[in-house]
Amino acid sequence: MTSEIQSILNKKDPGYEDIVTLLKCDDEQASMLYRKAAETKEKYVGNKVYLRGLIEYSNICGKNCLYCGIRRDNHQINHYTITSEEVISAALLAHRMQFGSIAIQSGENTSKVFTENIESLIRTIRKLTNNELGITLSLGEQKKEIYQQWFEAGAHRYLLRIEASSIDLYRKVHPDDELHDYYKRLDCLKAIKETGYQTGTGVMIGLPHQTISHLADDIIFMRDFDIDMCGMGPFIEHSDTPLGKMGTDNLFLRERFGLTLRMIAILRIIMKDINIVASTAMQTIDPFGREKAINCGANIIMPNLTPDRYRANYRIYEGKPAYSEIDDQNVSGLNMELIPGAIIGLGAWGDATHFKSRRLKV
Ligand code: SAM
Ligand code: SF4
């Protein structure tokens, strides 16, 4: 088996069966996979870890995803939308701390007030930072005109996770209605790419009913969609949601963690020059989860810049940190001793090289 893993790792284009084998490998074999992913990262994207200061703009969501703690039917949360002044001050803090970019994330809201506020925030932030601060959006499914409007205002990256690339699995973790339509989400992803954004997607790992074949298909989906960025992470239960009602099995959480590291490493080997996020959900399962993800191929982290008073109410899953992990002395919140050779990429957008080469091909 060990030599089988090595021969897969030597292949130019590992296929579906190879991915399944890699996902199933044991911990000793996984260390070979992680080493290969680290070498690939070093060769194609270098050793910098880029920062996207995360601003969790609002927890008001019109959707009802069965896994998410801020779903419409969870009445246990206090709703908020951060004021424009607070968003701008968080963005200016990111700029001062030399974060290359911010990422604005929110529950899904398609109202005119919401879309216009976002547009105005993008314009103001770009102006106040002399166009130096990059802006990533993760604001769910919107009309193509809205994606265009925000792009013209100055946002240039968009992250919309497909959540599960299998239609069957997607349907098992979402309500069965028009608002949660797999093909609509796919069309949005296509619209984002056509608009000109650096396009990111991703999946949750460890969802109920999910199999290794689903995960292998997820990797193939991301490869074939030719994404520029990936944000994927373990699914973690939230007890006020339909999928979280049964409680968390800690042993299984560790398995999800290991599978996520394997998914990151395999994706790095297959899509060499994309950006891959080390997610906060990894840190929730293991205090050094992000550092481990970086050692396995990830190169982006999203330190939270949401003002403290809102954080407890953006609890999409149980155990999500509600404290500040960064300060003047450590802008990333990472333990650098655990990621030998890595450097924090300050003052740079850290765009995916993949995006540049993809644009050249068009
Ligand atoms: N509303 C937007 C959307 O759904 O694209 C952006 C915000 S949403 C909270 C961001 C991501 O959180 C989702 O894409 C989903 O993958 C993740 N998420 C939601 N509930 C989760 C859970 N219980 N465990 C892990 N990740 C979760
Ligand atoms: Fe809303 Fe996004 Fe959560 Fe779904 S995952 S309920 S769209 S915030």
Largest sheet: 9 strands, parallel
Give a count of the beta strands, DSSP E runs of length 2 or more: 11
Average pLDDT metric: 95
Give the overall shape: globular
Q: What is the gyration radius calculated from CA atoms? A: 19 Å
The structural class is alpha/beta
The hetero molecules present are: S-adenosylmethionine, iron/sulfur cluster
Give the fraction of residues assigned to helices.
40-55%
Q: Could you name the ranges where pLDDT drops below 50 across 5 or more consecutive residues?
A: none
Report the span from N to C terminus.
41 Å
DSSP strand (E) fraction? Answer: 5-15%
Helix and strand succession? HHHEHEHEHEHHEEHEEHEHHEHEH
Question: Can you count the helices?
Answer: 14
Overview of the structural elements:
With 362 residues, the chain is an alpha/beta fold. The chain has 14 helices and eleven strands. The strands form two sheets. Strands 1, 2, 3, 4, 5, 7, 9, 10 and 11 form a nine-stranded parallel β-sheet that branches. A two-stranded parallel sheet has the order 6-8. α4 runs parallel beside α5, α6 (144-153) runs parallel beside α8 and α9 (212-225) runs parallel beside α10 (250-270). The protein starts with a helix and ends with a helix. It binds S-adenosylmethionine (SAM) and iron/sulfur cluster (SF4). The site of S-adenosylmethionine has 18 residues, from loops.
